[in-house]
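User: Predict structure, ligand EPU.
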Amino acid sequence: MITTLDNYNLTERNTFAMKVKCGVFMEYTKAEEIPFILSSIRKDVKRMHIGAGSNLLFTSDYPGVVLHSAIKGIKILSETSKEVIVRVGSGETMDDFIKWACDRQLWGVENLSGIPGEVGASAVQNVGAYGTEACDVIVAVHAFDEVDREFVTFSNEKCRYGYRDSIFKKPNFKGRYIIHAVDYALRPEVSPTLTYPALKTMFGDRDTATLTPHDIREAVIATRASKLPDPAKVPSAGSFFKNPVVTEEHFERIRQQEEGIEVPHYKTAAGYKIPAAWMIDRCGWKGYEEGNVAVWHLQPLVIVNPYRKASPDEVVNLEKKIIDSVRQRFGITLSPEVEHI
Ligand code: EPU
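Assistant: Predicted complex:
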C-alpha cells in the first residue's frame, strides 16, 4: 500500500526532533510499489529516502519528496546446523529483528541490541556497536536500481563496506538503489563476540557454552543505557562525529602533547583510530549546554536536543564550535557521522 501525505511534518520522523517539514511524504509496504512510486515523482523534484531518521540532521525544511519503506517481515530462507539465512524487510526496526534472532538462540546481531534505526538504513550506514558491524552478518542486500530500472541484489562484497560506509553512500550511487530487503547469516552455534572491552570484562571468564544471545543483548542494552541518551526521552542522532584515523606521527605528536595521559587508540590498517569522544572530552565539552542544545553528559560524542526546542542552526553552531576546538588542540578535523540534509 502506498500512502502519500502533502506538506508533512517530519518532527516524529527524525530522532533529533528537528521541527521541519517536507513537500510530500510517501510510504510503501511492498517492493513492487517502488518502481511505480519513483515514476510518479517528477524528474525535477528532489527526493530522498529515510529510515527511522536516527542518523539525520535536517538543517531546514525539505522541499521535495521523502520516501519511507514500511516493508515488514522476517523470513528464514535456509537453515543448517552452522548457518541460518534470514531475509528481513527494509522497514523492520533493527532492534525488533535483533530480539527475534536472540529469542531463537541465533547469534550474530546481539551486540547491536538497542541500536536505533531500521534494517534498510542500517545496511546503507553499516551501523556498528560493541564489536559488531552490520557488514559482519549481511550476506546480501536487495534493492531497486532507479537508473537501470530493475531489481538487483548486492553480495556483501559488492556493498564495499567500510567504517559507517558502503557503496550506497558513495557520491556516484547515493540515492540510486532503494533497498527493500536484507539477508543476514546468523549462527545457531554459541559464538559470542566479546572483543569490546566492557563485554570481555563481563563475560570473559564465563564458560561460553553457558551463554545465550540474550545474555549479551541485556549487557549491551545496559551498557548503552549507561552512556547514551534514551532515544525515547532525549532526542539526538547518536554519535554525532566519526572516530578519525591519523598517521603514526600525528598520533605520537598527540601523545607527547598530552603528556602523562594515556591516549586511547585502536591500530587499524589505515592508521591510528582515536575516539572522537575522548578528544571532545579533553576539550571540556562534556555536559556543555547552550540555548536549547547540549553535549550529552555521559558521552560527549552525542549532541542532544533535551527540550525538543533546538533549531537546526543551534545544532550546527555547536557542531562547528566542537570541530574548531578539536582542530585547535589536536590538529584533527572531525567529520560528522550524522548526515546533514
Ligand atoms: N571516552 C572519553 N570520554 C567519554 C566517553 C568516551 O574519553 O565520556 C573515550 C574512552 O577512551 C572510550 C572511547 O572514548 O574508551 C570510546 O568510547 P566508546 O567505546 O563509548 O565508543 P565510541 O568510539 O565513543 C563508537 C560508536 C558508537 C558505538 C560505540 C560502541 C562511532 C562514531 N561511534 O563510539 O556508535 O555505540 O562505539 O561500540 O563509531 C553511533 O554510531 O551512533 C554510535 C552510538
